[in-house]
Amino acid sequence: MAINAETISTLIRLSRIDQSRRELSDRVAAFPDRFRRVTAARDRVKSDLARLDHDLGEARKERRAREQEALTLETRIGEDAAKLNAIRSNTEYQAMLRQIAETKNRKTALENQAIELMEREDDLSRRLETDRGKSDEELKALAGEETELRAEESRIRAELGTRDRERAELLRDVDGELRGRYERLAQSKHGLAVVPVVKGACGGCFASLPPQRVNEVRQQSRLVTCDACSRILVWDEENFGP
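Below the sequence we write its predicted structure tokens.
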């Protein structure tokens, strides 16, 4: 296929644009995962804080339950002690004393549990206060990261749109048969349809080229392709190298 230097220049520019579009598209495709990582990190921070707050609430609830139960037993001890004066049987009297003693032991155990739970509350409260401050900082940082990500995504999408428009304009300057050939190559070669000759080899697959083929590329008078990978070969020392 006959070709001229201007068309070759257009193909080179198209190839550059397609490579840029591929890189930009890959970056756009990576944004959902990047956003998910930020969201997961934010959820972890909130979850850790919520779990700590829940543990504090549970400790407080258990401590109050133990205190209430201890108060109930205190009332029962007083009631049982009041019954002692009315008991005439020594056996019943001793049984009541044992009952009061057992109740006091249970009350003491509950009070000790309440003290332990109160200490746990204090510890959890301190941790919650510290972690809440850290969490606020982490959430603020994550919000900033998300804002930066959205700005970066918007910028890259805009840049990709510009490359798409530039590509469409250049394709109008390529005739139908060559345009179709280029499009098929760009599709199958991931945007790298046009490559330079590099040290006597294809710049795409690096297969060695016969000297005659290299000369044909240098003359820029017809379309020359690589026999190994079918890419369009060009000679462009300034932009692609000798």
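The mean pLDDT is 92.
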